[in-house]
Design a protein that fits this description.
By secondary structure, the protein is α/β, with parallel strands linked by helices. Helix content is about 40%, strand content about 15%. The radius of gyration is 22 Å and the shape is globular. The strands form two sheets. A seven-stranded parallel β-sheet has the order 3-2-1-4-5-6-7, with helices on both faces. A six-stranded parallel β-sheet has the order 10-9-8-11-12-13, sandwiched between helices. It has 16 helices and 13 strands. Strand 9, helix 10 and strand 10 form a beta-alpha-beta unit. The two termini are about 20 Å apart. Helix 1 (about 20-30) crosses helix 16 (about 385-400) and helix 9 (about 230-240) packs across helix 14. It has two domains: about 5-190 and about 385-400, Rossmann fold (3-Layer(aba) Sandwich), CATH 3.40.50.2000; about 195-385, 3-Layer(aba) Sandwich (Rossmann fold), CATH 3.40.50. It has helices at about 20-30, 45-55, 80-100, 100-105, 120-130, 145-155, 170, 205, 230-240, 265-275, 290-295, 315-320, 335, 350-365, 365-385, 385-400; strands at about 5-10, 35-40, 60, 110-115, 135-140, 160-165, 180-185, 215-220, 250-255, 280-285, 300-305, 325-330, 345.
Length: about 400
């Protein structure tokens, strides 16, 4: 039997969004001679399919009591009563998972628990407390409400939570206590996977985008806090500044609104585009499990988040494709990822006029965009390596176990 410590990776992200992609790369580069991974997920989906496709589908534990989101519906229709009932049932499922954890953790011979995401942090911390098992948190968000912030900080103080890995300095700042547990490890990506030289573009052919058209794109979850309404406002400014030049500008939004968010924000954005008369300038692709063929056809990458976005993976994915980045200088991890004036342009928070002018500037000055894009890919190689992140995760797992990291 393998004597290396067995790590339970708890992951409720099944669609391979930011947390799922990050965990995928950790598992890809994890030293199997040092640690044996087990992965708890709610069900098979995009995340697990990627693991299977790359030969990483091992020691997978699928348990439906661990929902992707507490808003997972149990009933079709029914309005507010059905949503409340679903919430209660999901909480009871999680309670059942935690209560029975001594049995199945012992069966899996788990030595340490790694938590990927907010829900995983809560569940993992309590499991660790009940079972006397050390816990590692990987914090990929900044809590937006005082209540949730208080809950997370209270759980972080538990003796079972030994190490807290934060994806940015901004994410770490939400923990006023227990600083000795905290380390900052930026998200990483595999530049061999995100290589424009090895990727075939799909957008220009699929949407008959003429040669010479400058494609300005963004990828991510289509939810209000991501600022896509501001992106549309900025697009109107950029179109005005770019003028009637041949080819024009085309704006592409890749993603959709997850089911557990109230309202269809994507439908709202399409309506906003129509109200502004920009239908000919916008493309909404919907959800893509692989955004690389879209990134290949972008000329400029925009991330319009105007809140403390902890450290969105989409930024370093765009930079990996040698794309200049335009973003807001809002508190959060974006300002830690983008070197303003070198790998992109950071604009005053919420200033759509400045963002639109920045997009137009890069569209007009292709030499500047190329220079910034190349600098961005170099920055990813130097600072945001997925393999380096895996080494840091290994180090923190061993520290949680009270052992020196293995070389």
């Amino acid at each position: 039997m393998d004597s290396s410590p067995r790590v339970l990776f708890i992951n409720h992200s099944i669609r391979d969004g930011g947390p799922g992609k990050s965990l995928y790369y950790i598992l890809k580069f994890l030293g199997r001679e040092k640690l044996t991974p087990c992965v708890l997920i709610p069900k098979d989906d995009v995340f697990s399919e990627r693991l299977r496709a790359t030969g990483l589908y091992e020691n997978i534990i699928i348990d439906g009591r661990f929902p992707e989101n507490l808003k997972r519906p149990w009933f079709s229709g029914g309005g507010a009563p059905a949503r409340i009932a679903s919430l209660v049932l999901n909480i009871l499922d999680l309670a059942s998972l935690v209560i029975t954890s001594p049995v199945w953790l012992r069966r899996q011979s788990i030595d340490v628990i790694y938590c990927n995401g907010t829900q995983a942090k809560v569940v993992g911390a309590i499991m660790g407390l009940i079972n006397g098992t050390p816990v590692v948190w990987h914090v990929r968000n900044i809590q937006q409400t005082r209540l949730l912030g208080t809950i997370i900080n209270s759980l972080a103080a538990l003796p079972s939570v030994k190490r807290i890995i934060c994806v940015s300095g901004a994410a770490a700042a939400q923990f006023p206590y227990g600083r000795e547990k905290i380390t900052v490890v930026y998200n990483g990506t595999d530049v061999a996977d995100y290589d424009p030289a090895k990727t075939v573009g799909e957008l220009r052919d699929a949407y008959d985008i003429p040669a010479g058209t400058v494609v300005v794109g963004s990828t991510g979850r289509i939810v209000p806090r991501k600022g896509y309404d501001l992106f549309i406002e900025a697009a109107a400014v950029a179109i005005r500044e770019y003028g009637e030049r041949e080819g024009g500008l085309k704006f592409v939004i890749v993603g959709d609104t997850p089911y557990f968010f109230e309202g269809d924000h994507l439908a709202y954005l399409k309506k906003l585009v129509a109200e502004k008369g920009l239908e000919d300038n916008f493309i909404f692709t919907g959800y893509r499990d692989d955004v690389r063929p879209c990134l290949k056809d972008f000329d400029v990458f925009v991330i319009p988040s105007n809140y403390p976005d902890p450290f969105p993976r989409s930024v370093i994915e765009g930079m990996s494709f040698a794309l200049p980045v335009v973003a807001f200088k809002a508190a959060g991890g974006i300002v830690e990822a983008v070197d303003d004036g070198v790998t992109g342009i950071l604009c005053a928070p919420g200033d759509t006029e400045e963002m639109g002018n920045a997009i137009a500037r890069l569209a007009l000055d292709t030499g500047l965009g190329k220079k910034m894009g190349e600098a961005g890919r170099g920055r990813v190689i130097a600072k945001f390596s997925a393999e380096a992140v895996a080494r840091e995760v290994e180090k923190n797992i061993f520290l949680a176990l009270g052992r020196p990291p293995e070389k």
